[in-house]
Amino acid sequence: MHEPIRDNLEEYLRGSASKISQDFHAHLQACEDCAGELREIEAQAEMLHALRPGKEIEPSAGFYARVMDRIEAQGRASIWSVLLEPAFGRRLAVACATLVVLLGTYFVATELSEPIVAVAPTVATTIPASPDLGARSSEGQAAGRDSMQQQRQRDAVLVNLASFHE
Amino acid sequence: MSGLAGALPFPASGARTKAKARVDHRNSEEAALVRRVQARDEIAFREIVERYQAKVFSIIYGILRNHNDAEDIAQQVFSKIYFSIQNFDFRSSLLTWIYKITVNECYDYLRKKRVRKLVYESDFTEEDAQRMQNTEAATDQGPAVDTQLARRDLVLKLLSKLSAEDRSLLMLKEVEGHSVEELSQMTGMNENTIKVKLFRARQKLVKAAQRLNRGAGKL
Fold first, then answer.
1. ipTM, 2 decimals?
2. Backbone phi, psi, residue B71, to 5°
3. CA distance to A44, B69, B144, B196, B198, per residue, from A25 (Å)
4. CA–CA separation, A97 vs A85, rounded Å?
5. Are B195 and A10 within 8 A, CB to CB?
6. Which helix (DSSP H) or strand (DSSP E) does residue B29 occupy?
7. How far apart are CA B155 and CA B151, in angstroms?
């Protein structure tokens, strides 16, 4: 549809002849395409008038009470609407996303550290003859002996304290 | 029909359009009423229901032509208004907002009804048949009624191809009879935008009707 028709279309459909420019009628006579399209649009505007109610309709008495009943019934069942409420829903989504990121980070971190722990005993058991490892095990035994001695000393102190009271 | 035409502004009419005083929907008596409802004032909500119930009923009845459906959908409309009035942003008039909700509810209803009809088509009882015969006898005034019904069905079908915004804008113009200037005040959009939107909506309707005719021609 060309400009002279498009510009005046709403005025034409409304029947406001005084607001329609001269170009409109001149172009309409010259352009068959625009004339055809305008006829289709006019027919549809006419069809839309079929949706006019004709008269104003009042609801039957007690309409407000019935509306409130429905609101109450829908309000009771709308616990999910709280979750879907825009502001709360946004916060919930951010919290969920943060939780997912934290859990993801945790799992990735633990998965990365796990192989080191798992490999160490295998190496220790498969290469028992290594002199370095032997030295390490003797160091461990010495540490164990020290701790036993410390424990015994602690027990002796406790016994002394108990007998001192008596 | 030019595809570009719809995307272009309307310079000539824009030049002619005088600068109109914008309606401030934030500082009106209606806005004060809405704020009271937003603060969960039930007296204010009752006022809204009583002020708009006849309008809502008329819109629904115009689309569906059934009193029982109109009551049910009107209740649903006001229930929706109650729960979503917190989101009303005062960019348009309250009536425009209510109009859009009402038309959307009608279309939701029609969609559900179409699905139900497909599922329960076999539930057509003897009583229904009798009632239909009586209705036909009572309205036996020639083909005019049938033609009107067919026209309404067709126009509802065509309107379903538009977006909710375009649909309510076109209906406010053609069904409610508002002028472009009034629509501009009601929606908060300028007159050129209204004209462009209306033109595009009309083009879509024409194309949808052509497709429908082509489809019918193939059968």
1. 0.72
2. -60, -50
3. 21, 45, 34, 21, 21
4. 18
5. yes
6. helix B29-38
7. 6
Q: Which residue of A has its CA nearest to B50?
A: A64
For A86-105, give the DSSP string.
HHHHHHHHHHHHHHHHHHHH
For B54, which of A1, A57, A74 is closest by C-beta distance?
A57
What single string gives the DSSP state of each residue in A104-162? HHHHHHHHHHHHHHHHHHHHHHH-TT-HHHHHHHHHHHHHHHHHHHHHHHHHHHHHHHH
- Counting one residue from A and one from B, how many pairs have CB atoms under 8 Å apart? 121
Q: How far apart are CA B126 and CA B199, in angstroms?
A: 47
Which residues have C-beta within 8 Å of that of residue B88, sequence separation ≥ 6?
A: B34, B38, B94, B97
Cα dihedral B164, B170, B171, B176, rounded to 10, equals: 140
Kindly determine whether residue B75 and residue A44, on different chains, have CB atoms separated by under 8 Å.
no
pLDDT band, very low/low/confident/very high, at B32 (cuts 50, 70, 90) = very high
User: Chain B: nearest CA to A100, how far in angstroms?
Assistant: 30
Give A48-89 pLDDT, tens digit per residue.
988 888 777 888 999 999 999 999 988 765 556 666 666 677
Count CB neighbours of B204 within 10 A. 19
Tell me the chain B residues in contact with residue A51 when contact means C-beta distances shorter than 8 Å. Answer: 62-63, 152, 155-156, 171, 175
Could B148 and A50 be called an inter-chain contact, meaning their C-beta atoms sit closer than 8 Å? Answer: yes
- What tokens were used for A7? 């510009």
Per-residue model confidence as pLDDT tens digits over B160-171: 999 999 999 999
Which of A14, A48, A63 is the closest to B175 by Cβ?
A48
CA distance B12 to B191: 12
